[in-house]
Hints:
The protein is an alpha/beta fold. The chain has a domain at about 1-80 and about 195-238: 3-Layer(aba) Sandwich (Rossmann fold). The chain contains 10 helices and 10 strands. The longest helix has 16 residues, at about 170-185. The structure holds adenosine-5'-triphosphate (ATP). Adenosine-5'-triphosphate (ATP) binds near residues 20 and 196. Adenosine-5'-triphosphate binds near residues 40, 41, 42, 44 and 45. Keywords: Amino-acid transport, ATP-binding, Nucleotide-binding, Transport. This is ABC transporter ATP-binding protein.
Amino acid sequence: MTERILEVRDIQCGYDGVPVIHGLSLEIARGELVAIVGANGAGKTTTMRTIAGLMHPYRGEIVFEGEVISRLEAHETIRRGISYVPEGRRLFSKLTIQENLELGAFIRKDRKVIDEGLKRVFELFPKLYDRRRQVAETMSGGEQQMVAIARGLMSDPKLLLLDELSLGLMPSLVEKVMETVVAINRSGVTVLLVEQMVQEALEIAHRGYVIQTGTIVQQGTARDLLDSPEVRKAYMGL
Ligand code: ATP
């Protein structure tokens, strides 16, 4: 593997002292697009929140660009270059697209830096530029998901964490959103996405991890996982 950007080493984490992630490890090379796939409640969101610094592991550690970050808070991990797009979009519904995007750059107070962020994001999402003055709640689910992803890019992350992008979207929109993720990755951003839509996620990923009740049970290239009889049976109904 080329240079590792992220290493999750044997973490245990959970809620109120009760672990729901039991010794999970994974690693991501700079430039990769990696998927964590698994069923509802398997621990995908908990893993993402822990990497983002919204929760801290009871044991184990998380290393980002060679430094241990598992004790840092979310505002510090975002400064280091980790951006988390949570499940369920969470836009400010009464604000316009541009206002939502500008809030995504909250760690950058400098107007010039915010404008550069907007320029970069609008290049990736030309449709959002045309609709930048539209209020978020008047957009479709797919469009709102694009805004949520774009907002995640405003802090100019090195690692983008995408939580369950497909939630509540029609299949045709899921495909569009996945194409966008590929474009973001090609633009140089390392991506870790978690998905219940296993096939869709593995079709765009380089590598994948299968998570079950808080533990990684299978890992490999996305191609190998797509061909795996266990994965096909458990998650694709094949
Ligand atoms: P989903 O796709 O439904 O979000 P997931 O794979 O992301 O599923 P998590 O949300 O990480 O799974 O949940 C993992 C386990 O942790 C589940 O058993 C869940 O009930 C539990 N859990 C999640 N959030 C909390 C919380 N705030 N307090 C207590 N337990 C929680």
